What does this fold into?
Amino acid sequence: MSTSSGTPESWISSFCSLLGHEYFAEVSEEFIEDDFNLTGLQTQVAMYKEALEMILDVEPEDDEDEEEEEEEEEDESIEGGDNRMRQGERRNHSRIASDLSVIESSAEMLYGLIHQRFICSRAGIQQMSEKYELGHFGICPRSNCEQARTLPVGLSDIPGEDTVKLFCPSCLDVYVPPNSRFQTVDGAFFGRTFGALFLLTFPEYDLTKRGADVLAGTRVTEDDKDMLNGMYVCNIAPGLGTSKIYQPRIYGFRVSEVARSGPRMQWLRDKPDDMSELDEARRFVEDNPDSEDEDDASMNLNGRPIRRLRARRRQGQGGQNGSPMTVEQNGVESEL
Amino acid sequence: MDEFASESDSDYTSYWRDWFISSRGNEYFCEIDEDYLTDRFNLTGLNTEVQYYQYALDLITDVFDLDCDDDMRETIEKSARHLYGLIHARYVVTTRGLAKMLDKYKKADFGKCPRVFCHSHPLLPMGQTDVPNQKPVKLYCVRCEDVYNPKSSRHAAIDGAYFGTSFHNIMFQVYPALVPPKSSERYIPRVYGFRVHSSAALIRWQNIQRTDMLRRLRKLEVESGFKGDQGEEDLDDEDEEEDEIDVEGDTNVVG
It folds into this structure.
């Protein structure tokens, strides 16, 4: 773990190889070195500067005076031979053990918070997609999802609130990771956005494929490329629907909905047999054939129809282009 | 008896059933009463299902005293495990069987629901078919009414027919008070706080299905089991709330 031991492994890669840290991507140093990406984190992490140095494997600097001299040196010599020399000189500066453990935990927190941002950047989400293809994030425990691959998500963006969960794109639900070692990993280190953003970024993954087919990196075939609400129809909750709902039976007879112990939660696993029912904008236009002409009038009348019409237009634009990541400004932070 | 004990690899237990239910991987089974096993009526038809039926039954009831080689013994042992499972499927739907399984359920011996919004509700083992050797055991959560795979591979190898398709439903028919309050709490995929259009549309549709169901139940004056479901007004309130949130999240992300 300690950087001064002379091991070639960086702090980041040793952190990611720890037991229970299998879901983490390795944040690139360029991403961390860009101050813009760290905006606002100073106030969230104790001993921010020291923690950041630890993550980047930079030797700690105690004194203000030394800082200036070494700043120029540092850039070139971090991996150079005189790095070792400086280490020797610095031994007297070395921190007491308790201090180190505080920095260590701050560094983990800081890394997690940077990680939350990184995996939503272009480079980060790409790295996560490689991990997804390798099956690093596990599978859905739900029987009718037939081992669909899950994605790590947080239920909150604020650290310390909840542990990491697994989001299943097949049933749109979240599950507790099966192994207890993940119960020490903070959900905020993955964040609320990643799971949904992943599906929008990589619409080409065929979510109906299982097992070996996923390994082959199956993409949605040309025949299945019908779009609905900004996603391929075949990829919208493939694990849900009439045939995927558990039907309770006693000796072959279905338990009635009216029974005290009857089924009440089937809506949660349901989806329309005809998915075009979900195309709310189109249905609205069909139900209200006049509204198109009265566009201006209805805008002034009430909010609902306008919203739907606008939704339809947005969809028209976005329909051809499933990935927000292909739009340049979304990738800005990773390119700076 | 002594002879049997020394031959099997469990010197510390004298009874086959004790050994069986306490061995690793068999945590889902409860102990079948001696009385139930000795009543031939309960075993009707099983003699055709199991090889060496009589020997297997003798082994289960600890009266096995056949002198035979290891291969034969292994075969009978296997038959006994299968027979025990098949009797177990019948036993767990009896009053005493239900009570024993209820104890195990309360201790969460069958594991807890992995779904986050079920808040670790205990599970019950179930089969997807009553025909043996077809499908492995699954776990049923009464809170979300869905079926999950066991976490551990040693449980995933157990035959689902040893629990059957009816047991877990009978459990809640017999003990309706055990049915937990239902909740419409759920996960909503979001990007930077905004709902994603495709899943949001599906969730809206599902909410309509739920509202329809609650209306149907209210018409029949059946308690729905949902928390805070008192009357029509509540429902309308809920709808309005939904609308407000919709307006707020107007800019649903479209991919």
The domain at 110-180 of chain B is CATH 2.20.25.20 (N-terminal domain of TfIIb).
